[in-house]
């Protein structure tokens, strides 16, 4: 068997040398076919050599492209580590034929799950080489694994985080076109992710130039809409659904920097008023402050219309947590958040304060309701 192995390896070397020295390699198609056929043989060393030679001459025999690709896919499926690594290293050479890039990226993506460090390192290098050749067709199948929730999705996300995202400036050219392409891939992929994964993707998006400081307001609103979808603002609020509650708080924290840059907080604030305030008493004590903090932090950036909607709920909560008589168990953290929110909302919609708490601020509008007596409201609120 050793003699047969040596003879087979020697034969492949001769075929490779003949192809290397030939001026018109297309005349030696039978030699290339013989190299491909070695993949089906018994010799491990011959298969390893075939994994090296098939990519080297791949571009010279377009008619054999499919046959060569199938042979390479067979090689990365073999038990011998040395064969698999050699085949993995050869894949970027095959990617010069753009027809196969997506399939190669998909196969390499699956190999990210390898438990062998040396193999995983080879996969990382091959994938990055592939991505540098063809960003779109390489990344699309990787994001498909994330979007579909395949068993290797976590491995793919780690690869994106550690290898791809840090070199986005190098890869995403032309910048505007490729940043838009990445944004669309991510929007499809974040429909079912963990909070940490979602934060990773959102941090990446916020670092793109199309969402930079000079971007139009519509761009910020696009980011807000991605966060709104993650917060599931169309669902009924369920106090006992801890995951949904924490996701809402986490999404509000992520949205705050975008509110500051012009993104609308309307949908979040409306959800708080209609869904959360009516059941606020039932929210676990350790979570109430988190809800109040996010509302307080967003209140400076609310519109007058949103302030008008949120202010009555703020006053309602203030009356609950800021009692009229002195008591010992006042939660000053709650009161601080609510007073902060109250002042930021009230100065944007001053003609609503008279009917809510007796503060008369003249704006000249009928909604000032100056002819009505709200002195009891004022007395009650001042006591508090």
UniProtKB/TrEMBL annotation:
GO molecular function: mRNA binding
Keyword annotations of the record: Apoptosis
A GO cellular component annotation in the UniProt record: nucleus
A biological process term (GO) from this entry: regulation of programmed cell death
Name the record gives this protein: Apoptosis inhibitor 5
């Amino acid at each position: 068997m050793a003699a047969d192995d040596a003879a087979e390896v020697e034969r492949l070397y001769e075929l490779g040398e003949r192809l290397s020295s030939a001026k018109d390699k297309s005349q030696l198609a039978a030699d290339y076919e013989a190299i491909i056929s070695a993949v089906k043989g018994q010799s491990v060393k011959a298969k390893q050599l075939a994994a090296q030679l098939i990519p080297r001459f791949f571009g010279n025999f377009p008619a054999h492209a499919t046959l060569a690709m199938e042979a390479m896919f067979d090689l990365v499926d073999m038990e011998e580590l040395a064969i698999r690594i050699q085949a993995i290293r050869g894949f970027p050479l095959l990617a010069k034929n753009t027809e196969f890039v997506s399939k190669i990226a998909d196969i390499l993506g699956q190999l990210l799950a390898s438990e062998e460090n040396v193999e995983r390192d080879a996969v990382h290098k091959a994938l990055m080489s592939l991505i540098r050749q063809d960003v779109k067709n390489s990344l699309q199948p990787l994001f498909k694994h994330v979007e579909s929730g395949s068993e290797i999705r976590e491995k793919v996300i780690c690869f994106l985080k550690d290898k791809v995202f840090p070199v986005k400036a190098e890869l995403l050219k032309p910048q505007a076109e490729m940043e838009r392409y990445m944004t669309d891939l991510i929007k499809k992929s974040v429909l079912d992710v963990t909070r940490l994964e979602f934060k990773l993707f959102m941090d990446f998006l916020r670092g793109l130039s199309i969402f930079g400081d000079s971007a139009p307001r519509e761009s910020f609103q696009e980011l807000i809409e991605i966060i709104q979808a993650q917060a599931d603002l169309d669902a009924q609020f369920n106090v006992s659904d801890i995951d949904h509650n924490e996701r809402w708080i986490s999404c509000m924290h992520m949205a705050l920097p975008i509110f500051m840059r012009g993104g609308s907080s309307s949908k979040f604030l409306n959800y708080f008023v209609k869904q959360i305030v009516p059941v606020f008493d039932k929210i676990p004590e350790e979570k109430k402050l988190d809800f109040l903090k996010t509302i307080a932090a967003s209140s400076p950036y609310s519109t007058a219309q949103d302030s008008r909607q949120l202010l009555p709920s703020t006053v309602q909560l203030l009356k609950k947590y800021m009692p009229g008589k002195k008591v010992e168990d006042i939660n000053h953290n709650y009161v601080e958040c609510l007073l902060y929110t109250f002042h930021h909302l009230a100065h944007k919609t001053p003609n609503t304060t008279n009917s809510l708490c007796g503060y008369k601020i003249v704006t000249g509008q009928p909604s000032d309701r100056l002819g009505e007596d709200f002195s009891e409201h004022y007395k009650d609120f001042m006591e508090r």
